Amino acid sequence: MSSIPVTVVIGSAGRRLYLIDWFRQAFDTLGVDGRVVVTENDKTSSSATYGDICRILPSYGDSAYESALLDLIADLEPLLFISVNDYELLHLHVTTDLADRMRQSGVLVPGVSAEWQRGCADKLQMAKMLTAIGVRTAPTVAGGDSAGLSALMAGSDDVVVKHRFGSGSSGLAIVPAEKAAEAVSESLLSAPTTTGGPPSPDDVVVQPRLSGVEHGIDIVGALRAPGELAGVLARRKMRMRAGETDKAVSVDPAPFTANSALIAEASGLTGLIDVDMFLDENGLSTVIDINPRFGGGYPFVHLAGADVPLYCLAQALGRDVGQEWASYEPGVVSAKYESVRVTARESASLPDSAQ
Ligand SMILES: Nc1ncnc2c1ncn2[C@@H]1O[C@H](COP(=O)(O)OP(=O)(O)O)[C@@H](O)[C@H]1O
Ligand SMILES: [Mg+2]
Predict the structure, then answer these.
(1) What is the dihedral of CA 75, 86, 262, 309, to 10 degrees?
(2) Could you tell me the pLDDT band of residue 354, with boundaries at 50, 70 and 90?
(3) How many Å apart are CA 27 and CA 10, to the nearest integer?
(4) Closest ligand to residue 167's CA
(5) Do 292 and 254 have their domain in common?
C-alpha cells in the first residue's frame, strides 16, 4: 500500500491561489489526506510557495522541461494534473505527447483532443470547427482575406479586430466597419505568429461586433468518459480588467447547455473549459472564444456554490458526489480584489561599504 497522499498538480498556477485553496477544501470535504503541488517557472511568483510542494520547471520551450516534468510525475505520483497556462497546455497536448505519456503512467490529465486544443489557440480555426458541429459562432475572417473582409464589412456596422493567436484581449479593437483594414494594420504590429516570422494580416481576425450580453461559461466533462457533459456553469460578465472577468453575476446555465453538450462531445472533453458566449434577446447563444482550462471566470460560480475541484477529485478517486457540485445560486455578484504575499527573502546583499 502506498502511503503517498492524494496529489494534485496545478501547472503554472501563477496568480490563481484560490484554486490551491479550493483543492485543499475538496480534500477536506472528501476526508482524504491530500497535497497540492504547484509548478512554476518563477520561484518567487505568488503561488510558488503557496502550495504544499513547489517544483520549479524550465520554461516549456526548453529541452529540459520534459525530463523535469516526467521526474516530478515519477517522484510525486499525482492522481490529477491540470495546467492553467495556454502555452503549457499547447506544449503538453499538441507540440509533444507529454499529456498522453502522463496518462500512460496513470495520471488523469483533463483536456480536449489535440485538434480542439490547437483550435482553442487559433480563432480562425475555432470558428470553422464550431460551425462544423452546428454551434453558432461569430463569422470570422482572416485580416488578409480581402474578399471575406469586404463581405463582412458590407454586412456589419461595427467590427471586432483581434489577434488570431491571441489571448487576454490582445490586439483588440472595436471599430466602425469602414475602419476595419486600418485596424487590421494596427493590430498586426503586435500580433503573435506561429512561424516566429514577422506578423502578416492573416495573424489577425475580424468578426462582426455581436449584439447581446457577454457570458462566461464553464463546460465540465466527466473525467473518465471523454465527451460526456457533466455540468454547465454560467455568469454574466459585468466588468473586464486586463482581459479577465473582474466582476460578474452567476446566472442560470440553461441557455448555454445545448452548445455546451455539442462542444463537449466534439472535443472529447474531460474536466473544465472556459468559454465566452454572447446571449441575444431571443435567448440564442453564440460562442466567441474557448480557453481549455480553469479561466478567470470560474471563481464567480464557485463563490455561488459550484465546486469543480471537488468534482474533479471525486472523479479521480472514483467517488460519487452526486450533482450538488454543479448547482449554485443565481444572482450572486462577486468582484475581484488585489492581494499580495511575501514569496521569498533575498540573502543580505548590501555592499560592504554600506554595512
Ligand atoms: N465578435 C465580437 N463581438 C463583440 N465583442 C467581442 C467580439 N469578439 C471579442 N469581443 C470582446 O473582446 C473580448 C476578447 O475577445 P476573445 O475572443 O474572448 O479573445 P481572448 O479572450 O482570447 O483575447 C471578449 O471577451 C469580448 O468582450
Ligand atoms: Mg476570451
Answers:
(1) 50
(2) very low
(3) 15
(4) 1
(5) yes
Number of structural domains in the chain:
3
Which residue from 207, 288, 293 has its CB within 8 A of the most atoms of ligand 1, so it is best to mutate? Answer: 288
For residue 111, how far is its CA from the centre of ligand 1 (angstroms)? 22
203 and 219 share one domain: no
Locus of grid cell 466582476 = 247
Same domain, 252 and 167: no
Residue 122 in contact with ligand 1 by CB distance below 6 A: no
Question: Ligand 1 in contact with 288 (CB < 6 A)?
Answer: yes
pLDDT tens figures, 10-39: 999 999 999 999 999 999 999 999 999 999
Distance 122 CA to ligand 1 centre (A): 13
Residue 353 lies in a domain: no
Whether 235 shows a pLDDT value over 60: the answer reads yes
Domain of 50, in residue numbers: 6-109
CATH of the domain at 288: 3.30.470.20
CATH number (domain holding residue 169)? 3.30.1490
Looking at the predicted structure, is the pLDDT value of residue 355 above 50?
no
- Over its C-alpha atoms, the chain yields an Rg (Å, rounded) of 21
Residue-level length of the chain: 355
